[in-house]
Amino acid sequence: MLNIIEIKDIIAIAKTAGDTIMKIYQKDFNVEYKEDSSPLTEADLASNRVIVQALEKYNIPIMSEEGRSIPFHERKAWEYYWCIDPIDGTKEFIKKNGEFTVNIALIHNHVPVLGVVYAPAMNDMYSAKKGEGAFKNKNKLPLSINNSPEKLLRVVASKSHLSDETQVFIDTLNSEKIEQVSKGSSLKLCMVAEGSADIYPRLAPTMEWDTAAADAIVRESGKMTYQYECRRPMLYNKEDLLNPWFIVK
Fold first, then answer.
1. How high is the pLDDT of residue 38?
2. Are residues 94 and 189 in the same domain?
3. Which conformational region is residue 103 in: left (phi greater than 0), alpha (psi within -120 to 50 degrees), or beta?
4. How far apart are CA 208 and CA 235, in angstroms?
5. Which among 75, 109, 140 is the end of a domain?
6. DSSP assignments along 143-209, one per residue
7. 159 and 135 share a domain?
8. Which of 87, 120, 140 is the last residue before a domain boundary?
9. Which of 13, 149, 215, 239 holds its CA 20 to 30 A away from the CA of 174?
10. Dist CA 112 CA 21 (whole Å)
11. What local confidence, expressed as pLDDT, does residue 153 receive?
12. For position 134, what pLDDT does the model report?
């Protein structure tokens, strides 16, 4: 299945979704709130329509943050499926700070094997396909490598969801100097993939669609997203779609 999907086609879908989002971003828009109190805008829904309609031609199941809730008994037999977040970082979108992304991932047997992360306000496109490498705007990742993390460790953390547990973890890291930056959305994983950050600890809740696309990029860049407790790679299409705490490095 993976060999019939061209990464350039998924990049084009993300770009179209991003263009749709930016038309709404540049004007006043309404904000609603879902049952879990997370924000929802017309841009989330418009982006979702663009992506889902474009992906339907592949005849692969689709799981989206803004789609219907699919019970585990229905999806547990999926070998392949699309995992999408039409806008990751809706809070950043509402704040208009530009740090939000379109996330499209293809999962095969619990592992992300293709991912596209597009930040339309920044015009940055990250992409990866298993066996073909990871890229930022057509430049192969990583763009840089820190050969002396014991002297300087660059840590990226959430802009809107920095938990006390995450900060405690950062404070105990072993390096002469720790440089901590904040970033919104899945861009944090992409920073580790590109080499502008060395580690991203997330000891706070996230959902599978928040990380799947960027996780594919992380893995193809030679890094990994590890579950915090067991230090094994992250898995997808679990019965509970809530991610465990994790560390990207």
1. 86
2. no
3. beta
4. 9
5. 140
6. S---S-TTTEEEEEEESS---HHHHHHHHT---SEEEEEEE-TTHHHHHHHHTS-SBEEE-S--BHH
7. no
8. 140
9. 215
10. 25
11. 98
12. 98
φ and ψ of 195, to 5 deg: 100, 5
Residues 187 and 119: beta-carbon distance below 8 Å: yes
Q: Across the 249 residues of the chain, what is the mean pLDDT of every consecutive 10-residue run?
A: 96 98 92 87 95 98 95 97 97 94 98 98 98 97 97 94 94 95 97 98 97 98 98 98 98
Give the residue among 192, 200, 204 at the shortest CA–CA distance from 245: 204
C-alpha distances out from residue 112 to 6, 185, 212, 229, 234, Å: 15, 18, 6, 20, 9
Please tell me whether residue 16 adopts helix, strand or coil conformation: helix
**Whether 63 and 121 share a structural domain:** yes
CA geometry: angle 52, 126, 9, nearest 5 deg? 45
Structural domain including 234 reads: 152-248
pLDDT, residue 160, reads 80
Q: Quick one: 59 exposed, middle or buried, by C-beta within 10 A (0-12, 13-18, 19+)?
A: exposed
| Stated pTM of the model | 0.96
β-pair partners for 104: 84, 116
Report if residue 145 sits inside a domain.
Answer: no
d(CA 185, CA 66): 16
What are φ and ψ of residue 166, in 5° steps?
Answer: -65, -45
Pair of tokens at residue 169:
């973890």
Token reading at 137: 């705007």
